[in-house]
Specification:
By secondary structure, the protein is mostly helical. Helices cover 50% and strands 8% of the residues. It has one domain (2-58): Orthogonal Bundle (434 Repressor (Amino-terminal Domain)), CATH 1.10.260.40.
Length: 74
Amino acid sequence: MVVLNVSKIKQLMTAQRISNEEISKRCGVGKAMVSYIINGKKQPSLNVTKSLADCFNLNVDDIILDVGESNGSA
């Protein structure tokens, strides 16, 4: 399973002084959705993840976590 690295996004936002509203404008996503994503309540679609990466001039791989797949078998 792949999930957004919210901590990294928050660090980037702080370092670059980018607000949720600016992310919303750049990504074409509503402010509420950006808030849900930043607070870890929702996972963004692949298109939004790509837009987030583009906002920070990064690759998608730079802002996601591979949490592995666990199916209970060893």
